Amino acid sequence: MKKILILASLLLVGMTGFSSKTDEVIIPDQAIRFRVIAASNTPEDQQIKQKVKTALQTDITNLLQDSESITDTRNSLKGNIKRFENVVSTTLLQNEEATIFDIHYGLNYFPEKLYKGVTYPAGYYESLVVTLGAGAGDNWWCVLFPPLCLLEAEETNTDDIEYKSFVQEMIEKYF
User: Model-level pTM?
Assistant: First the structure.
């Protein structure tokens, strides 16, 4: 009887989870975002934002590779703010950039954003935010938990991506 209930639940979830948009990504309510805001929209400031983003994303990917829950991710981020400050400082020094910056973990404001076919409302979200200079430029953001941007960062050849069905995996696991 237990297997029948699990199978019925999985089928229901699977059927309601299908969408006409295959590239649609839904960010769950329990998510941790990551945002880097440029000092301005000058090409130089946007380039520095990209370099800081890349350095931090690489560091955070390594840090969170064994994280299995939102609590693990939250604790790792909170406990490594100084580490992130060092990564940003080093990146700015290597690029001979004297920009001041601020790093904040907690509830931070995000403007409305269209991401992979879904519009996310403006609001305060749990996040790690790096603000370069005055923070008056365009920003880059992604989701650290679940690790959507970390998975994107690891993608090098998208032609070899293998898609799996959640429902199929659960059926194979339990039956």
Answer: 0.71
